[in-house]
Description:
The chain is mainly beta. The chain has a 22-stranded antiparallel barrel. Helix 1 (about 1-10) crosses helix 3 and helix 2 crosses helix 3. The longest helix has 16 residues, at about 40-55.
Amino acid sequence: MQKQESIIKELKMKKYIVSLLAMSALVANDKVVLDKASISGESFQETAWELLEYQSQMPTKNVSLIGEKQLLESSSGSGGIQSILERIAGITYARTSGLGGNISIRGQNTRNGRSIIAIDGVRVNGRTELEFDMIDPLAIQSIEIIRGAASSMYGSNAMNGVINFKTRRWMGDVSAPFKMDAKIRGVEVASVNNALGGRAEVLGGGDGWDVLVGLTGRKASDFRTPAGVAKESKYHSYGTDFNIGYTKNAIRYYLSGKYYSVSNHEANGLFSRPGTSYGFTMSEDPLREIYLKMGVEAYELAGFADKMDWYAYWRRWDTDIYNQLPNGQYRHRKVYNNNYVGGRLNLDKTLKSHSLSYGIDVWSSISPTQLRDEVIRPNPRVILNSRDTYQVSIAPYIKDDYYLNEAWILSGSLRYDYYKMKIGKKKSTTERMDTTLETTRFLDSHSTMTTGALTGNLGATYFINDKFSLNANISQDFKSQGTTGMFPNYGASIQTLANLDLKPETGQTYEIGAKFADKNHYSSLNFYRTNYTDMIALQSLNATTQQYQNIGKAYVQGIELESVHRFLEKWNLQLVGAYTYGQDKTANKPLAYIAPFSGSLSLGYDFLWGSLSWIQRLYLGKKRINNTQERESKTYTMSDIKAVMNLGYFKKDFKDMEMIVGVENLFNTKGRNPATQENINYSRALTNPLLEPGINAFMKFAYKY
Length: 705
């Protein structure tokens, strides 16, 4: 509470910031409450203080928040956490199955390594689509999204944005007597894939302690599309997590962690596209994650900092991947013993009109076990597709937000990332097959490599008055090549050739935007352009081979709109949309798999017992395409309807409990998201690219506590 009160107190001194940020916090909510209480008092603290803290750390950045309310009231049965993220401007969901898939931010798929997923600020290294599969929306308190360059805060690969998932913890009074309760956080069912999911928690605290232990599980069958069942799109998962803290003398010591196991079947085959329609099957059975984090949060410090945050973590992945081809070949890929260890020390200090953050960020990747492919049939054999690898990054950084006067906020940040990569001596099978020994000689002579990159950001916000503001940003960013492309990879159906000359990628992002906020209206319009040099892209060489290459210079530019309006006391209207344009300047052709325009319109009405909303989603078809990788797609729109019932209205004992019922894709529209990949060497089919789910009725019980 001391942390929360200090944030509120600081922002109340600048009424123009309070008004603007409180309205921003409401953009992500389906039911919008825009009265006086929403920017002051307990209601304000409940709905907006998390975003106020987050955005006060980045006042010139383009930040969005999906809060607790929207997470509880959204359906995840037909798409997991990714389908919820898609409601933010500039984000689209590139689906690969009922649960799997990636997010595209500003036209760039998270698999391409230009955006970062973080859990409580800890960046997730490795395949991002795996982390999405491990996230239950009921286990998350809020999601913070930075759209735009953030390398100066997070390092390599944060060129297009950051999605930070904030996990749940008990937030009661730790000075009270100790007490624990067991509660059902939520239960959800969905018709399109016979999905069932839920979460239970044991939580409480007192005598200095805060404790939360959660148990979560989900399962679903193959989902139905308007053209039939998407075979091999089923999944099931289970997991447990905990967050335990002890607070004394304004210092909180904590330990958190989780164990998760997922069995996920990929309908469109991932790298085995075109998927099950052509007999290509793929499953991750299981995917396992172990994660531990320990840290210290200290407040009211004297001298060098007002606040200190230190943590260290360890994450391990193990994955069993099974592939089957139409010709009967069946193989088991063992991706074992992938470890990520790191930590951060961050210090915050206020010096007159300056708000400083500085510290050091360290992470390392330790993969001592080679990638192992076991061909089960025909001709059983073992293929080792890589060497053991080790990477470490050390990055000092500093950021300053300067409150120049009542009208101007200036922001600047610098970060230097030092990378060291070591390649082991265990040769891969593919090296032994290379009679020229080119790959072996290169890897032996480059067994230890180092590189470094300086990134930075300059930004400004100008408040014309209490309602209007303008903002601008310039950023320098980079993407490390890491071990990408150094090892040939002989997959089940597509072979990835090694590229020993791959170089790092750099980028510059320019943004300018405007915001308007008053008691009943909020609008944000943002323009951006990112220029890439030595852009890294996975290029298809033919039907069976591909390679990571530096394609040269490219750019992505676009416009993003978020707008919320309340009128006639009970009605609210929300508009979200993004136009995106990408071009490979070197080859003079469009960048592939960019959704040209996507957006949604939501119209809601508030009743005494709850609310009723109609949501219309629109995806503009692609006519401007890279014809070596994709085909044209059609425009489509989908309709959703949702009712939220506050059970406390009917019985006081059910206070803070809700029942949410609704229908997604009400008219069973056939749609293929323009960001979803396909294999153009095969004709278009249900899984090439994968069709979106058909009509889906869902019901959800949610308990906010």
